[in-house]
Amino acid sequence: SDSHFPVPISPSHVDYSLHYPHVFLPSSDQNDSSKKIQFADIGCGFGGLLISLSTLFPETLMIGMELRDKVTEYVKERILALRVANPGQYQNISVTRTNSMKYIPNYFEKGQLSKMFFLFPDPHFKEKNHRRRVISTHLLDEYAYALGVGGIIYTITDVEELGEWMKACLESHPMFEALTEKELEADPVVELLSSATEEGQKVARNGGQTFRAVYRRIMPPL
Ligand code: SAM
User: Fold this and answer.
1) Measuring from atom 14 of ligand 1, which residue has the nearest CA?
2) Which CATH number do you get for residue 57?
3) Best label site of 63, 96, 128, 180, fewest CB within 10 Å?
4) Which residues are near ligand 1 (CB < 6 Å)?
């Protein structure tokens, strides 16, 4: 349960030197304290997306948020091994065990993030469990708070009904607008949505269809 993992009481209590020791040397004045986490992979699973994004955006700090303890530990080990095998690389990615449905505001200040990822989230098919879905009108309010204007939320699933649900939630929210086809084609991150994660690779191996919704955080119309 939630009592088994520590939760920072505010974004300024997130210990960056633990997550990114090469960027934030403990008790050193070389720390670039203005540097903040910009990408969040929600329900990151085994971490494939973070690893792909790490070298694509080497200057950007990113974090995976994962509820399962063992999976989080696996991702930690995976990142450490990559850092050892590739000196100087993979210093910008990390993972934390947390319940993203409860604690996003504990990790990120208003407007801090430029990208949020929700790749192959759990579908929660039954109507009474829809409130457990990681995309909902209520949670989109929180994500809109954490994302800066112009920030992008990426969602993908192989469950058609969930894909329609996520799209409908985003479409009806006043602080999000869909990216155009042209913008989707120009964004190098979009192709990773279906190929970089372990779940995406499984769906691709099985020849499954995927349903994508990619939206930009906007200023709400007056
Ligand atoms: N995004 C990964 C991928 O594409 O391979 C993992 C997809 S997996 C189907 C969904 C993941 O979300 C699981 O690892 C699960 O533990 C995690 N998860 C579910 N609810 C969560 C929550 N409230 N907070 C954080 N992670 C959660």
Assistant:
1) 45
2) 3.40.50.150
3) 128
4) 43-45, 65-68, 71, 99-101, 119-122, 197-200
